[in-house]
Amino acid sequence: MSTTSQKNLGAQSGAFSLGGNLSVHRLGFGSMQLTGEGVWGESKDHAGAIAVLRRTIELGVTLIDTADSYGPEVAERLIAEALYPYPSDLLIATKAGLMRPGPGQWVTNGKPEHLRSALEGSLKRLKLDRIGLYQLHRIDAKVPLADQIGTLVELQKQGKIQHIGLSEVSVDQIKAVQKITPIVSVQNLYNLSKRTAEDVLEYCTKHQLGFIPWFPLATGDLAKPGGPLARAAERLKAAPAEIALAWLLHKSPVMLPIPGTSSIAHLESNMRAAALQLDSATIRELELGAKAA
């Protein structure tokens, strides 16, 4: 496959403009799985992680999601090592607001001093002067919302952040933040099996906010023999994960899935979802099957 046709694969997922001026291909890549077990420590296969990141660019990915807490710091360092100097059309979206005392442990910290320090660390590790999309990983209930968002706005005014996004929020929380400042994206748990954020997706679709579903491939029993994903995959000669991603892309024009993997083979399979078209009967079968599961 030629380099041009490879990049066209990413483009086939469609494009979305964050904030009206930051266009990305809708099917992106999540970097969390490039770290060690429990999202802690270095990758077990450093060279493999670098190869996966470089392959994402060859396949036309223009949105890579990461966070200072992945490793911590490991994923951001890997991205810079693999891809710097970055392609002009690549958006690296990173996050802050969670601390990592140990493997599998996540502690919310929205204190202004922590957010400022976290941003400076991300800028240094990613070798950037400005983060294109900076997301608050969690709203900290122990810190006034105005202090958390106000800190990001202050950093934005300093030119260190282009756009602000949120993660794991309700519609009411989005509206509360929008009273303080515009946002361009929301990153919530969402997949075929878990759709509790449906109201958030509807709000994002209505208001043209990018919706970045994390854990997009929680296929579980749906992909087992006889399950709706397995049946559709067999019929369309595709992997169940490809069907799940194609369903997400079909669900809303603001949907920006970021499947992650440490395997080039899985990456290439996931990216094939960009060119996969699901008819209305398949969509109905998937959604009814997921609801019954």
Helix and strand run: HEEEHEHEEEHEHEHEHEHHHH
Class by SSE composition: alpha/beta
Strand order, largest beta sheet? 3-4-5-8-9-10-11
According to CATH, what is the class? Alpha Beta
The overall number of domains is 1
At CATH level 3, the topology is TIM Barrel
- Considering DSSP H and I runs of 4 or more, what fraction of the residues is helical? 40-55%
- Tell me the number of strands: 11
Radius of gyration: 18 Å
The backbone outline, from C-alpha atoms, is globular
Count of helical segments? 11
- What is the fourth-level CATH superfamily? NADP-dependent oxidoreductase domain
Describe the oligomeric state of these chains in a short phrase.
single chain
Distance between the termini: 39 Å
Q: Beta-sheet strand percentage?
A: 5-15%
Task: Annotate the secondary structure layout.
Elements: H1 3-11, E1 15-18, E2 22-25, E3 29-30, H2 46-58, E4 63-65, H3 74-83, E5 91-96, E6 98-99, E7 107-108, H4 112-126, E8 131-136, H5 145-157, E9 161-167, H6 171-178, E10 185-187, H7 198-207, E11 210-211, H8 228-236, H9 240-251, H10 264-271, H11 280-292
Parallel strand pairs: 3-4, 4-5, 5-8, 8-9, 9-10, 10-11
Antiparallel strand pairs: 1-2, 6-7
Helix pairs in contact: 2-3, 8-9
